[in-house]
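Re: the pair you flagged

First of the two:
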Amino acid sequence: MSRPLRIEFPSAWYHVMSRGAGRKNIFRKPEHRKQFRDLLGQVSPLFQCEVHAYCLMSNHYHLLIHTPLGNLGRAMRHLNGVYTQRFNRSVGIDGPLFRGRYKAILVDADSYLLQVSRYIHRNPMEAGQDLWMADPDYSSYPFYAGRAKGCGWLETSYLLKMIGSRNSRSFYRKYVETIEDDEVTRFYSKKRLSPVLGKEDFLESIERYIKDGELNPEISDVRAIHDAPSIKEIQGVCVVHFGMVMKDLVRSRHRIPNVPRDMAIYLCRKVSRCTLSEIASHFGKMSYSGVSKAIARMELTLKSDKKIAGHLKKLTKTMRT
């Protein structure tokens, strides 16, 4: 059987779904959902993608994601890969957690975005688990409904603005909680899902894009993307910024903090679009997990140290000019 079609381009919108292997639970403990939500919060700035909705059921999840850089595949590999590692470690097992590759439905944002968000948020309700709609560890719906305070990485304003009402949260609650057998529900009821959900003009534009590589700019706000800096270029910028030599940036100091090194690794992952293994190969004898730990350290440091956050801002500005 052929693999699902992957359509990626700048500023695309996707409904992403992934199910546990053998329909087994991918969230066994309350902390598993918290870990997954934390990862979503890391993936968003790391790959510069936007999470607009989520629903974490016992054996599968749903996401509504916008990708300004057209890099859904990289973001999802990181999300599912890192979560699998953490899940397996927490329950003492090994092997794949998810059933094959994730599914990604390309969404016609102008026509179906609100409907898809409604479909995602109604999943717990359709499963007879209404209480889950009030718990942000299960669904983003409480943030839309005004039942939970917002979190920094979840984007809610875009969808709420589409409603076009001063009482947008109230109208959104009515929209989600009112049972309707609409077109989107029928779309998802099919056994074999189409990789694209859209009106005729959107479908024709995507067909042309697949065939000729040209996307109608009226269908999607396609942004120009500059070539991402290489790992060596990022290392060079960090060496100059911190006033050090390359060998001190690259090598590990054996448990002695090396903030410039962690910063360089963090930037490599954030802006170079390179894999963890590729980054590891440029920082001495470093493992895949070592890169992940360095990124995690830097994320914690950035939250608590304004001076280091200032360095990041200056470095990012330098690489954009």
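Second of the two:
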Amino acid sequence: MQFATVNDIVVHYHFEAAPAGQPVIVFINSLGSDFRIWDDVRAALSGEVGLLFYDKRGHGLSSATEAPYKWQDHAGDLAALLDHLSIDKAIVCGLSVGGLIAQGLYQVRPELVEALMFCDTGYKLGDPDLWNARIAQCEGEGIASMADGILARWFSEEFRNSHPAELSGYRTMLCQQSVAGYAGTCAVLRDTDFSATAGNISVPTLCVVGSQDLATPPEVVKALADKVPGATYEVIEGSGHLPCVDQPEAFLALMKRFLSEVRHD
């Protein structure tokens, strides 16, 4: 396991250096998950490109500081980790709140971003009442009290019915997250709105969404794609909120095509 101290927290990460002439891709996971959600992607891309996976503040094995958090905290942590690893430019792939963190990184350190891949995310996600209720339930009753509803949004019905062991494992992953980290990142989702800045993105951008995503439905991701100049928008049929788990082959096909286009340009 790999750890680094940045911004006074300990970040858990996995880094594979890029082969000569190939880019580094950074993967930012969703609320309530750790970087194991990218395992199928890692297995498929290992040795072809550089790969950086990390647990954001308050998730997985990374430090959980006191809630609430701001998007600047998460974006600053990623920038500091890239600096620590001497990565001066990367393709950044953010899922759900990870997409907001990717947008934040582009706002504060655009020179670090070669291209963006937004997965099941938008320029704003949900409304304050939703996130305040989520914070109150998390802090009052625990993450497990919300698990059934969250898993129904994470995965399509077909995945939930046909992968009971995997579903149990992802439930455990979710329920083992830090309450402070979960609630703190809910505050990021509550308070972040990049509607005024998404149009300033000037790097190649791919926006991907699962057709059965109940957390960030296709129209939310399409609205982001419409704001980003030149962005490509793709729907993965039959997938829920985590296409890298629910439909990894389709997700990887889109990612590899996008990488080819970015490198060709």
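The first strand starts at residue 2 and ends at 6.

-B.
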